[in-house]
Specification:
The protein has helices at about 30-35, 40-50, 60-65, 85-90, 140-145, 170-175, 185-190, 195-205, 215-225, 230-245, 250-255, 270-280, 290-295, 300-310, 315-325, 340-350, 355-365, 370-375, 385-390, 400-415, 420-430; strands spanning about 10, 15-20, 25-30, 55-60, 75-80, 95-100, 105-110, 115-120, 125-130, 135, 155-160, 160-165. The protein has about 425 residues and is an alpha+beta fold. The strands form two sheets. The protein has a ten-stranded mixed β-sheet with strand order 1-2-3-12-11-4-5-8-7-6. It has a two-stranded antiparallel ribbon with strand order 9-10. Strand 2 and strand 3 (about 25-30) form a beta hairpin. Helix 14 (about 300-310) runs antiparallel to helix 15.
């Protein structure tokens, strides 16, 4: 229970914990991952904000990663300075600013010592429509935290290592619990994409499937229709990350149970049992998102409908079509010494780009772990005979050259790609 008194600090794994007030939990972080952030660039930015008496803290996902002992890939900062005050500071200090597109949302990006620093003014949402928000700047850290989606993403970390946690984010992170800040329904209605962010972070943080708060699931189901107005590109960006995270099969099934699937381009009668089987086969083999998602599709029409809704890349669409077409008919040879031969022959005969990569995804889909390891090491051999070689032998008819080359290629494949050029050309006389 929270108390409005100071408590004796507790030390856990080198981290100093301190409960300060009823609404704020703090602790001191001094891990090597945190210390490694202090490049010459960050030191320069920090000194500038301190000189002008503005607070500067690490925000969002980087705080979560640091608390998990991970090195964050991206570090975002929050500040009490307004965008105009930041611009004046950076200009006076001779610090270059780049990418001014974020300024209307309160974000200024400064570049110092070959490093970019994205700093955003504390904000409160004034008007929201489920996709975008009109914001107002503030100097109240708790109000900014209150507008964020999940408790684990609502924490700030001071540059002295002090954690500022207003909504039990640290406790939820320690317990691997996923909760919205305040009312789940209100947070979702501010931005319906938060439904998919919930699924993504659940797959990243939660230890077990099915450990959801009932009120969260109810809020998602009641507001799922709001996803219909979200752009396909934003939906796909979140969905892709969910598909390659933990508990992906459970989370996609939940999307169907909560009426989310129909609004994000998934097939109405998606094959959930096939998805569970494929995810079990491929989850530890670094599958591409489309490899997992293809298990839902019953035919190429499902791939095309997904593309219309989500605007997936050509590469992703082609992979989906390839897997749907070949997942049943292109399989390992049971009656041959070389089980990989059908896949190798397909690659040799194919003119498609990245065909070996697609075959690897097919093997992940099928759960062929040993064949996948062999395929990843295999170098595609080059057919040693060309039309020029045949013309040098006096064969001039284009049609005849094509027929002979195909016959020689078949001989070469039957040999396991071992017959060399001279031996193949000797066979031309017998054709």
């Amino acid at each position: 229970m929270w108390r409005s008194v100071f408590l004796r600090p507790e030390v856990v794994n080198g981290i100093h914990l301190l409960w300060k007030t009823r609404s704020l939990f703090t602790m001191q972080l001094k891990t090597k991952e945190f210390q490694s952030l202090f490049t010459e660039g960050l030191k320069g930015i920090a000194e500038l904000f301190e000189k002008h008496r503005f607070e500067l803290r690490i925000a969002g996902g980087a705080v979560r990663d640091l608390l998990n002992g991970k090195q964050p890939q991206d570090v975002d900062f929050a500040t009490t300075a307004t965008p105009e005050e930041m611009k004046n500071m950076f200009q006076a200090a001779g610090i270059r600013m780049i990418n001014n597109k974020g300024e209307q949302h309160g974000t200024i990006t400064a570049r110092l010592h070959e490093q970019n620093f994205e700093v955003t003014t504390l904000r409160v949402d004034v008007v929201t429509d489920g996709r975008h928000a009109e914001v107002e700047f503030t100097t109240d850290w708790e109000k900014d935290a209150e507008r964020r989606d999940l408790t684990i993403n609502s924490m700030f970390l001071g540059l002295d290592g002090t954690l500022y946690d207003y909504f039990n984010g640290f406790e939820d992170l320690q317990n691997r619990k996923m909760r919205f800040v305040g009312s789940a329904a209100e947070r979702i209605q501010e931005d319906y994409l938060r439904i998919l962010r919930y699924f993504r972070f659940y797959g990243r943080i939660a230890e077990e499937p099915g450990d959801h708060e009932p009120e969260t699931l109810e809020a998602i189901k009641e507001n799922s229709k709001g996803l219909a107005a979200i752009s396909g590109e934003r939906i796909w960006m979140e969905l892709k990350k969910t598909l390659i995270g933990n508990h992906a099969a459970h989370l996609v099934s939940l999307m169907y149970d909560l009426d989310v699937a129909q609004y994000i381009g998934l097939p109405v009668n998606g094959s959930l049992e096939e998805l569970k089987r494929v995810w079990k086969n491929a989850q530890h083999r670094n599958p591409k998102p489309m490899t997992i998602l293809s298990a839902l599709f019953r035919g190429p029409d499902d791939v095309n409908k997904l593309d219309l809704k989500l605007k997936i890349s050509r590469e992703e669409k082609n992979l989906g079509l390839f897997l749907v077409k070949h997942r049943r008919d292109l399989r390992k040879a049971d009656d041959e010494a070389d089980s990989l031969k059908p896949f190798r022959d397909y690659i040799i005969d194919s003119r498609e780009p990245d065909v070996q990569s697609r075959i690897c995804e097919l093997l992940k889909y099928q759960g062929e772990e040993q064949l996948l390891a062999e395929m990843e090491k295999w170098s595609i051999p080059r057919f040693p005979v060309s039309g020029h070689d045949l013309r040098k032998m006096g064969i001039t008819s284009g049609k005849e050259i094509g027929t002979i080359l195909q016959t020689l290629r078949d001989l070469w494949k039957k040999s396991g790609y071992q017959i060399d050029k001279d031996e193949l050309l000797k066979d031309v006389k017998n054709l």
